[in-house]
Amino acid sequence: MQENERAILEMRAEGRKRTHRSIYDEYTVVGSVRYTFDWHTVVHRRIHIMLPEEFVDLPSEIAKLRYPSESRPGEIKSSIDSLTNFAFLYGQKIQKEEIVQASRIYAAAINQLNPSNEFLESGTFYRDKKAGQVVSWYEYLSPAFGGRVYNRHAFLCVEQKLLQVVFNCPEEQAEGWKEPLIEIFASVYSDLEKQY
Question: Vertex 40, ends 38 and 42: CA angle to 5°?
Answer without folding.
Answer: 160
